[in-house]
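User: If only I could read backbone structure tokens as easily as an amino acid sequence. Those tokens are not coordinates but codes from a learned vocabulary of shapes. Could you go through the record with me and say what the backbone is doing? Here is the record:
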Amino acid sequence: MVKRDLEENLGKVLASMPVVALLGPRQVGKTTLALQLAKGLEKKATYLDLELDSDLSRLQEPEDYLRRFNGQLLIIDEVQRKPDLFRILRGLVDIRVRAGEPARQFLLLGSASRELLQHSSETLAGRIRYLELSPFSVSEIYRNDPSGFTPNKLWLRGGFPKSYLAPSDDESWEWRNDFISSYVERDIPLMGPQIPATKMKRFWTMLAHYHGQQVNYSELARSLEVTHPTIKSYLDILTDFYMVRQIPIWSGNTKKRLVKSPKVYLRDCGLLHKLLNISDFDSLLGHPVAGASWEGFVLETIIGQLSGKWQYSYYRSVSQSEIDLVLQGPRRQVWAVEVKRSAAPVPSAGFYTAAEDIGATAKYVVYSGMERFPLGGKAEAIGLVEFLRLLE
């Protein structure tokens, strides 16, 4: 079993906040993590799965039912299925806080829903903390087996537990196929947006070809025979459900003209490879998307490990000076990060120009090797695992 990095922090937050929302896509391990944590509590926790009719029926009179669990942690899974709960939770939390009861009261698990975020932020302000559980990360896999670590399996299959831990590449491939079909046919419509499954899957596949690029909304709109705003709404839906990452453009001061659109990445590289029909590692290495896929894999790993003290963006001028990732952190740190899959990385001249434009305090080239060594222009080549240690 792979120990999740979020487990310790989740326990600390539960001890200090009356309501904690653990969010993330389906099948990412939220329920497993919540139940694992519940085993270590002095008092037995109660678990409700609102996708089960039997559990959902218990909340026909939610206030009466929830009052029964004073002093006990209640875990509510797929909570977006019953958004009217948030108003009731607010009242119960306030009553318990006034009575001096412990902070740990409700752990809400949600599969990435805009409605969930809106309802909880409106009704539970000051009473709730949000945490995101992502698929397996490089740091989690490395800590599980540091001596035999290689990122290749994680890069090919992606980090969803059932995909990564599948007995074979074929079984991982079939799981990812089923996951994508289930998401477009059931999960997205269930959580609000009524979009034909065939159209959403086609859009998702087309988006995979834009991985690591700025999206051409007009081109996609013509291909799908929809409007420009509709394409933006489709993109926002996949972003809300943690399937897509939109990296914003750097917003600092510069005299140079910058591009304005975000760069788009599919967050899980295993799903990217399924949508592009890349089924094995040899095919991945020989595919034109290999460089962009590795870049997205590295950037998602880094962004997933950032604390709230760091902001991320990318930089690109109209003259094509570019930085894959700009990290702005404590003590006015500005890190320029370039990603290269080569074992002998050589940053472009545009990278150095862009680093000067943003006033970078450090320049790193994250590459596929493990050693750390200096490059020209005060840049450093560094392996991904070592770079993650810098962030810690």
About this structure: The CA atoms of residues 369 and 383 lie 5 Å apart. The chain has a mean pLDDT of 89.
